[in-house]
Design brief:
Blueprint (H helix, E strand, L loop, with lengths): L5 H5 L4 H11 L4 H8 L18 H12 L6 E2 L12 H8 L2 H4 L11 H18 L3 E2 L6 H14 L3 H5 L4 E5 L4 H14 L2 E5 L10 E8 L10 H9 L3 E6 L17 E5 L15 E5 L11 E6 L5 E6 L4 H5 L12 H39 L3 E2 L7 E5 L3 H10 L2 E2 L1 E4 L2 E5 L6 H15 L37 H12 L22 H4 L5 H4 L11 H18 L3 E3 L5 H18 L7 E5 L5 H8 L3 E5 L9 H10 L4 E7 L11 H10 L3 E6 L11 H4 L3 E4 L19 E3 L32 H37 L4 E2 L12 E4 L10 H10 L6 E2 L6 E4 L7 H20 L16 H5 L9 H5 L19 H6 L15
Parallel strand pairs: 1-13, 3-4, 3-5, 5-6, 6-7, 17-18, 17-19, 19-20, 20-21
Antiparallel strand pairs: 2-8, 7-8, 9-10, 11-12, 12-15, 14-15, 16-22, 21-22, 23-24, 24-26, 25-26
C-alpha cells in the first residue's frame, strides 16, 4: 500500500476486497458496474482537468505556504464581525474533536442527547440576553437571520393588513450594509417594499407591516428605541432588532422595548472570524410566533418511562411538510458553532461575560478620550465598543494604520469607525492612539485608566439578570468544562463510532489533514472585509476551489457565497430569475418540480418569486416525461425553470435526463440541478454534461465538510456561461458577476474557513482519487443492496437493476407484523448504528447511502445488523406490541434494573450480535414522546419540575 496516497486512507475499500464484492454484486469488475449504473450517453468522455494529487504531508506544506501569504492584521472594522478569543478547552474538545464535528443532525434524539443539551444551553443564552421568550437553535448568519425575521413578520401580518396588501418594511439606515443587501435580495421576489430611512423621521403609516433596527448602529451609536417601538406597537407595525450579542451584557435587553424579534450573530463568543464564517446566528422571538419561527427549535419532552428527554421540536423539517406553502427554506442550523458559542457562555458564566464586556467598553472609552485629546472629534454620543471619528484625511490615516498592521473602517474621506473587541489589549490601545497622534503630528500623551466608567445612558443600561441557570455557573475551571463537554459527547453517536448511512446526506470521512488548518490563526483571524491584498492566501485558495468545482460540474463559473444547501438552491433560482429579467422576460415565473423532489425545492422556488407546478413521477420513481412535456408546453410562455435532482431522489440514474433538459430549453426555461447526489457523479458524469444550467453543491456532503451535528454547511452554485454575469455580489467587497444579484449571505465568500476542507479533499484525491471515490460509493451501495436482497425490497433501481450511490428499502410490508419504519430506526441504536434516512422521499422507507469511506468490515456489520433486525421483525406479531423492536432503544438503566418484565432476554435487547459487546453504544434515554414535546414546548434550561405535567 502506498502510504503517501491520500485516496488509500480516505477510501475504505481496497483491492483485496474487490473480488468478494464483485461476486456479491454480480459483476466482473468496477467498469462493468459503472456501465450498468450510469447511462452511456451522459458519461464523461475525458478525465477531469485537475492537478495531480498531493500527499497529506505535501498538502499541509502547500496550505502553510498559502497561509503565509495572508496578512493577519488587527482588525477594528466591526460591521458585525469582531475578533474573539476561542478558549483552548473548547477549541481542543469541540472544534478539533470528531466526536462533535462528525455528528449528524439530531433527528434521532435518543442518540443525540449531548448536542441537544448543548443547543438548549445556546437557546437559553440567547433568550436570557435578548429577553425574548423563545429562540431557535441558530441560523446561518446575521443578515440571513434578519431576512428571515422580515419574512416571518410579513407572514404573520393581520388579516386586514393582508387584505389591504400592506407590503412596506422600514429598514433603519443604521443597518449593516450586508444585511441591507440581503434584505433587498429576499424582499423583491415575495413582494415586500423596503423603505430605508432614519428611525427618528419614520411616519408610522398604516401601509407598513414591520421595521428593522440595528442595536447598536452600524457605526456604534447606541439609540434609545423605546418610543419608536411603542409607536410601532400602537400602529400594528411589528419590530425586529439586529443586536450585538456582547453589547447585550451592558445594554437593556431589546425585549424590554416591546420588540417582536431579535436577531444577530454569536461570532464574537469565541468563534474565529474565518474570513466570513461559519458562524452561528441567533433568532429570538415571542412565544406567540412559535409556529412561525424559521429553523430548528430544541425542546424538552419525556421518554417512554416519563423521564426528561430532549428533541427537535415543532419546526423539524418544516419545509418537507409544507413544501411550497413553507415560509422559509431553512433546513439546517450552525450547530457546531452554536455549541461552541453556548459553551463559551458556560465557561465564562455571567460574571465572566460581564468582565469581557466591561473590558471592551472601557478600552473603547479610553480610545475615544485619548483621540479627542489629540484634537479629533468623536461623533457617537453613546456607544458600547465602536467609536466614530472625524478626521481630515482618512487615506492618510489608512497609510499610517497599515504600516502598523491595523485595519479601521473607513466610512468616507473624513470619517472612520473603530470597533474594539475581546482580543484588544492595552498595548493595542496604545498602537491605535499612536496612529492618530502620528496623523496630527502631535505628541502621544495617551494614558489608560482602569476606572469603571460608561457612556451608556442610564435608561439604556442593562438592569436585569441573565445566565442564572446552574449550567452557566458550574464549569468555570478547565477541568470541569472538559468533563462536562465529555459527558455530553458520550451521549451522542457520531462517525467516530460507526457508519452513518444516511441517504442523500453523504456522511463520509472528514479527514484529519483536511481539518487541521482550521485551527490556524493565519486562516481564522482574517476579517471578511479586510482589504483583498491582506487575504492573498485565501484569494488563491478560493479561486482554485471555484475553478476545481467548475471543472467537476462541467460549468463555467462558481460562487462560494451561499452558506447552506438551501441557500444554494435559492441563489441558483435567483440567478435564473435575473437572467430572464435581463432578456426582458421577467414574466417567466413557472417552476416545474417533480413530486419526488427534496422539500426545500418548492420552498426555495416560492421564495424566489416563482409559482410551483408539480410534475408526476412514474411507477418506477422516475420523472414522468409525458406529464413533464405537457406541463412544459402548457407553460412555455412563462416557464422559468425545472428543478431536478440527479441521480433522482430515489437513487437512480434516469436515462431520460438529456431529453428532459432539452425539453425545458426548447420551451424557454433553464434547468436547476440539485447537487445533493453529486457523490454518484464526480469524475464519471456531471450536471453540465446532462444539460443543466446551474447546480448547487453540498460541500458538507460530497466534498467532506463535516455535518457538525447539523451545520456548518456550504452550498455554492456552479453555472453555465449565460448565468455567470449574475453570480451574487457583496456591498462591501466586490465579488460576483458583472450584473451581480444582491447578497445571498453576509460574507463575500460565505463560510470561507471551512472551504479549506473541500479544497483539501479535491487536491489530495486528485482526478483519479475523485473518480475512484465515486465508483466505490456506487459499489458499496450495490453491495448492500445485494446482501439485503430477498429480505428487504429495494423500491427503485435503474434499467439494469442497479442502484446509484444510495437505495430506498421498503419497510411498509412489515406493518402486518405491527412494525413501523420508526421501530427499525430505533432498534438500530441497540446495534450501535444511526438509522438511515427515515421516510424520505417515500413514507415508510429507509434510504441508505454507505459512502466511499466505509470498509468492507463495516458494510458487513451493517448488513448483518439489518438481517438480524429482519429476523426480529418475523418474530413480531400485530397483536403483541411487547417485543424487542417496539421497546427499542434499550438503555443501560433498563438492562441493569432489578426488574425485567420483557418476554425476551437482556442479551437479546442489548447485545443481539456478538461484536456489539466490544464497542457498545448506550442510548441515554428511551424512545422520546414527540407529541408531548410539541404540546408542552419548553425550549430553555429550566428546573426539572418544569419538564413534568402538573
Amino acid at each position: 500500500m502506498r502510504t503517501d496516497l491520500f485516496a488509500s486512507r480516505h477510501i475504505g475499500i481496497n483491492e483485496k476486497n474487490y473480488q468478494q464484492m464483485f461476486k456479491t454484486v454480480g459483476v466482473e469488475n468496477l467498469d462493468q458496474l459503472i456501465y450498468e449504473t450510469i447511462p452511456d450517453d451522459i458519461k464523461l468522455k475525458k478525465n477531469l482537468n485537475l492537478p495531480e494529487a498531493l500527499s497529506e504531508n505535501e498538502y499541509l506544506e502547500h496550505l502553510q505556504e498559502l497561509a503565509d501569504k495572508n496578512k493577519v492584521f488587527k482588525s477594528y472594522i466591526g460591521l458585525g464581525y469582531n475578533e474573539g478569543l476561542l478558549p483552548s478547552p473548547i477549541k481542543r474538545n469541540i472544534l478539533e474533536n470528531p466526536g462533535w464535528y462528525t455528528a449528524y443532525t439530531p433527528y434521532q434524539a435518543e442518540i443525540a442527547q449531548g448536542r441537544l443539551e448543548a443547543l438548549l444551553n445556546f437557546q437559553t443564552m440567547i433568550c436570557d440576553l435578548t429577553g425574548m421568550e423563545l429562540a431557535n437553535a441558530s441560523l446561518l448568519d446575521e443578515s440571513t437571520a434578519a431576512a428571515e425575521a422580515m419574512a416571518m413578520l410579513f407572514d404573520v401580518r393581520s388579516r386586514p393588513q393582508k387584505k389591504e396588501n400592506v407590503v412596506k418594511f422600514f429598514v433603519s439606515e443604521e443597518i449593516l450594509p450586508q444585511t441591507l443587501s440581503l434584505l433587498q435580495t429576499r424582499a423583491t421576489p415575495i413582494g415586500i417594499e423596503l423603505v430605508i430611512g432614519n428611525h427618528e423621521d419614520f411616519n408610522f403609516g398604516a401601509d407598513f407591516f414591520g421595521a428593522l433596527l440595528q442595536y447598536p448602529g452600524k457605526f456604534g451609536q447606541v439609540n434609545d428605541y423605546a418610543s419608536f417601538v411603542e409607536n410601532c406597537n400602537d400602529n400594528n407595525i411589528k419590530v425586529a432588532v439586529a443586536a450585538d450579542i456582547l453589547s447585550l451584557v451592558k445594554l437593556k435587553a431589546p425585549a424590554e422595548f416591546g420588540v417582536d424579534v431579535v436577531v444577530g450573530t454569536t461570532q464574537r463568543f469565541g468563534i474565529p472570524l474565518g474570513y466570513g464564517g461559519p458562524h452561528a446566528a441567533f433568532f429570538a422571538t415571542k412565544e406567540a410566533y412559535k409556529r412561525n419561527i424559521p429553523g430548528r427549535i430544541i425542546g424538552v419532552t419525556k421518554d417512554t418511562d416519563g423521564k426528561p428527554a430532549l428533541r427537535m421540536a415543532l419546526q423539524t423539517r418544516e419545509q418537507h411538510i409544507k413544501r411550497d406553502k413553507a415560509t422559509s427554506n431553512i433546513c439546517t442550523a450552525q450547530v457546531l458553532l452554536a455549541v461552541m458559542a453556548g459553551m463559551y457562555a458556560v465557561y465564562h458564566g455571567p460574571k465572566g461575560l460581564e468582565y469581557i464586556a466591561n473590558k471592551v467598553h472601557n478600552i473603547a472609552i479610553n480610545t475615544a478620550t485619548s483621540i479627542e485629546k489629540l484634537g479629533f472629534k468623536q461623533l457617537n454620543s453613546a456607544f458600547f465598543d465602536t467609536i466614530k471619528v472625524e478626521v481630515k484625511d482618512a487615506s492618510a490615516l489608512k497609510a499610517i494604520a497599515v504600516s502598523k498592521k491595523i485595519n479601521f473602517n473607513y466610512i468616507d474621506d473624513t470619517t472612520v469607525s473603530i470597533s474594539i473587541n475581546e482580543a484588544t489589549s492595552k498595548k493595542d490601545f496604545a498602537t491605535i492612539v499612536a496612529c492618530f497622534s502620528e496623523l496630527n503630528k502631535v505628541e502621544n500623551t495617551a494614558s489608560f485608566t482602569e476606572d469603571v466608567q460608561t457612556v451608556i445612558p442610564g435608561n439604556l443600561q442593562r438592569n436585569t439578570p441573565f445566565l442564572e441557570n446552574e449550567v452557566f455557573n458550574s464549569y468555570h475551571s478547565e477541568t470541569e468544562l472538559m468533563r462536562y463537554i465529555k459527558k455530553l459527547e458520550r451521549k451522542d453517536l457520531s462517525l467516530n463510532h460507526s457508519m452513518i448511512s444516511l441517504g442523500s446526506c453523504t456522511m463520509k470521512l472528514n479527514a484529519a489533514s483536511e481539518m487541521l488548518p482550521l485551527s490556524s490563526a493565519q486562516w481564522g483571524n482574517i476579517h471578511p472585509f479586510a482589504p483583498i491584498d491582506q487575504a492573498e492566501g485565501y484569494q488563491i485558495l478560493l479561486k482554485r476551489l471555484e475553478d476545481h468545482l467548475s471543472e467537476i460540474t462541467g460549468f463555467a463559473a462558481t460562487s462560494l457565497q451561499p452558506n447552506s444547501g438551501a441557500q444554494g438552491e435559492y441563489a441558483g433560482l435567483m440567478v435564473i430569475r435575473a437572467y430572464h429579467e435581463s432578456r426582458n422576460e421577467a414574466h417567466r415565473n413557472i417552476c416545474l418540480i417533480p413530486a419526488s423532489a427534496h422539500g426545500t425545492n418548492p420552498a426555495s422556488a416560492v421564495m424566489a418569486g416563482m409559482k410551483v407546478v408539480v410534475t408526476k413521477t412514474d411507477d418506477y420513481g422516475n420523472i414522468d416525461v409525458t406529464d413533464l412535456r405537457e406541463k412544459a408546453e402548457l407553460h412555455k410562455d412563462n416557464l422559468a425553470a425545472l428543478m431536478v435532482t440527479y441521480p433522482s431522489t430515489h437513487g437512480v440514474f434516469e436515462s431520460s435526463i438529456k431529453e428532459v433538459t432539452q425539453l425545458i430549453h426548447d420551451n424557454g426555461g433553464q434547468v436547476y440541478m440539485d447537487g445533493a447526489n453529486m457523490n454518484a457523479q464526480v469524475g464519471l458524469t456531471n450536471p453540465g454534461n446532462i444539460g443543466a444550467d446551474v447546480c448547487h453543491l453540498n460541500l458538507h456532503k460530497t466534498f467532506a465538510i463535516p455535518h457538525g451535528g447539523g451545520g456548518p454547511g456550504v452550498g455554492p452554485i456552479c453555472v453555465a456561461p449565460q448565468l455567470v454575469p449574475f453570480l451574487p455580489g457583496n456591498p462591501v467587497i466586490k465579488t460576483g458577476g458583472e450584473k451581480a444579484i444582491t447578497a445571498i449571505s453576509s460574507a463575500p465568500w460565505g463560510s470561507s474557513l471551512v472551504c479549506l476542507i473541500s479544497y483539501g479533499y479535491i487536491v489530495m484525491l486528485g482526478e483519479a482519487g475523485l473518480k475512484q471515490s465515486t465508483s466505490i460509493a456506487i459499489l458499496n451501495a450495490n453491495y448492500i443492496k445485494e446482501r439485503l436482497n430477498g429480505k428487504f425490497d429495494v423500491l427503485y433501481t435503474g434499467e439494469k437493476g442497479r442502484a446509484a450511490h444510495e437505495m430506498i428499502i421498503d419497510c411498509r410490508p412489515f406493518k402486518q407484523n405491527g412494525i413501523e419504519v420508526t421501530d427499525i430506526a430505533k432498534r438500530l441504536m441497540d446495534y450501535g448504528f444511526h438509522a438511515p434516512t427515515v421516510s424520505f422521499p417515500v413514507a415508510g422507507t429507509l434510504m441508505i447511502e454507505p459512502t466511499e469511506s466505509e470498509s468492507l468490515v463495516e458494510l458487513d456489520r451493517f448488513c448483518d445488523t439489518m438481517l438480524s433486525i429482519r429476523a426480529e421483525i418475523d418474530e413480531a406479531t400485530l397483536d403483541n406490541p411487547n417485543n424487542v423492536l417496539k421497546n427499542s432503544p434499550h438503555t443501560l438503566e433498563m438492562i441493569t434494573n432489578d426488574v425485567w418484565d420483557f418476554p425476551y432476554s437482556r442479551q437479546k435487547a442489548a447485545f443481539p450480535l456478538e461484536h456489539i459487546a466490544d464497542n457498545k453504544f448506550w442510548p441515554r434515554v428511551r424512545r422520546v414522546d414527540e407529541a408531548y414535546g410539541d404540546r408542552n414546548l419548553i425550549c430553555t434550561c429550566a428546573p426539572i419540575e418544569a419538564y413534568m405535567e402538573a
